[in-house]
Structures are given as structure tokens and as C-alpha cells.
UniProtKB/TrEMBL annotation:
The lineage of its organism: Bacteria, Pseudomonadati, Pseudomonadota, Betaproteobacteria, Burkholderiales. InterPro entries: BUG, Bug_dom1. SUPFAM superfamilies: Periplasmic binding protein-like II (SSF53850). This is Tripartite tricarboxylate transporter substrate binding protein. It comes from the Bacteria. It comes from Advenella alkanexedens. Residues 1-24 form the signal peptide. Belongs to the UPF0065 (bug) family. Keywords: Signal.
Amino acid sequence: MLVKKLLVAATALTALSASMSAFAAEWPDRPIKLLVGYAAGGPVDTAARSFAKFLSDELKQSVVIENKTGASGMIAAETVIRSKPDGYTLYFIASPTPTITPHIQKSANLNLDKDFTYIGNIVDYTNVLVANKDLPIKSVKELVEYAKANPNAISFGSAGIGSSNQLSAELMKQKTGTEMLHVPYRGNAPAMVDVMSGKISFMFDISGTAISYINGDKVRPLAVTSATRNKALPDVPTMIEAGIEDYAVTGWYALVGPAGLPENVVKRLEVALQNIDQNPEFDKLMETGGYTRTFSNGADLKAKVDREYKLWEAVIEKAGIQPNQ
């Protein structure tokens, strides 16, 4: 009797395994939902919609954007984490959500080791240090010197407490021993308006939106935060070239899914990402927006998340930024 039960169980397991393999091989046979944690029309959403078209072409299946806004991407993250791991709910994740938000929001109960299947990096973006044109400075070195000679005369804006552009400025302050006044806003756009008007001295803005203000001669670009120059801003030096030692940070967009995605689905998505990365049309589209194609697999993406999580944890602690509720 026991032998018979064991044989039945083994047969059931074999059937289940075959069923799962067939499922993975047939995937995708219906539209895929790609979540975005930020509002429609913003830089993350715009990049995600461009990417979705190429992913749809690669998978021969519709990829539908769904905006789940709030809590710096955490609403979307929680939706993905709770979703069925079948490959039909994926997350176009922006780097601040896993690397910065957990340090800023007490409610961000994110387990980076268990909550996601990491699929791969898509593109990197750099922040650009842009200053008011009437400020008597033309370089990062002059900005630092002016701030040291005129305590509390230099102010910088950000999208809010704990935002990536605030932390870019905090890192500069820490590396140069400079005091500067932080003025938080409800988003990058109002901060940029006040940089242009001179109400604040400078801000770090994402390259995708800063480029139009720079090309329109409305602000003065001083440096980019990436290790190499941005192709869309070839005349703007890096922070390292501008004299800030070991200053090289970028933001990025990547693809993740809920924990437990079938291995065959992950592999197919990795191949799709690699093909998109090599697509000249995608390359041109991203370069125009100030992005750099940076395909990596899931393991490399997870290592990047862990590394940047520790970096921003240290910056936030030294800056004395307190987590909110």
C-alpha cells in the first residue's frame, strides 16, 4: 500500500514538473504587465514606455504599462512582490526604490534578498549639476570655493528629503567639507524653476530632463555624476574631472519580477534584454534622452543593488537624514 502511494506521489510530481516546463516553454501566451512606480509622463515612465515597445517586439507579445505611483516606487514594488510568479507581472524599477527608499521610509519593508527575481539592468542615467547662470561660478571647484568663502550663501534644491538628487549633493558636501543649504521641493520641476530664477543656487537633475534646460541656455551645467562623460553632454566634465575624488554615481532602470520566477522565463527575458541592448534604434533613442545602455544579468544587477544600498546608507547616516513614517 505504501509503495503504491509513493508511486502515485512520484507520478504526480513528474506531471507537475512536466506541466511547469511546458508553461515556461510556452511563455508568454498573453499580455505582460510592466509596472512603473512613478507618474505617467515623468522620466521613468517615458523610458519604460520606450523599453516596453522593444520588449514586446522581442517576446512577440503585448507589454502593457501600469503606473502604480507612491512611496518612491514602493507601491509598485509591493504589488510585484505579491503577484503570482508566472512572468506576467514585471517591474521596471528605478534605482532609488531598492537602494535609497529603505533607508528613508520606515514603512518600506523590503527584503532585497528574498522579494525579487533580478533579471537585468537596462540603462544607466547620470545626474547633472546645474547652476543658476547669474552665480559667479563656472566650475565645481569655483562652486566649492565660493561656498567656503560665503558660508550659507549657497543653496541647492531637490525633489524632496532623501531623494537621489539630494543625496548627490550631500555626497559632494561630504567629500569637499562644504556647508550648503538644502531646500526640498515636491519634485524636480519646481526646484529647476527656482534654479533658473536664482532663488536657489543649484541642483542635481536627471540627465533626461536637464538636457533641455541646458540646451536652452537656461542653466549652467558644471558636471555629471557618472564615471565617464555623457554622450548627450560631451562638453560637461565628470565630477572626478572637476576635482571631486572618487565621486562616481549613477542611477539606473532595471527589470525585476516577483521571487520565484521560472528559470526558463528568466533566461528568455535576459536574452531579450541583451538583444534590446544591441539594437541600434534603442541605442539612439536612449542616447538622445541622456541614458547609457548598460545591460547586465540578474546576478550583476543584484550585486549593484547591494553595493549602492551600502553607499547610500552611509551617506544618509552621515548627513543626519532621519527616516520618515
